[in-house]
Specification:
globular, alpha+beta
Amino acid sequence: MSINKFSITSEYHNINLVNKKIKAFCLEECIPINVIDAVEICLTEALNNVIKHSYEGKSGNKIDLIVGISSTKIDIDIMETGLPRTNFDKPKLEFDPDDINSAPEGGMGLYIIDSLMNSISYTSKNGLNITSFSKNLHD
């Protein structure tokens, strides 16, 4: 298994920077582009949630990422020390597409991650919050 660690601080512009580094790591490991694209979308959603909700938009807070690549899957762990999530229920996409006002206002990032990844989990213990997700390399 190949493992790489990345660290950023809680500024939105850092999301793109770390995504580029993780994409380069995945390309070096010959990960299929469709998997890389799904991981990039999910990382963006998860990191936006960390900055917006866990760190309440405040800059300068540390976010660590561990990316593990095996012959069968890619695993991502996002570790931070912000406010813990109180709800990890995965929303259902149920609304009237002809009525924009019926679209859900929140939770869509988690819906996207759950839809694109093969597994997703969240733990919070002793002040450390960990969001983990994985994607099979060949479905």
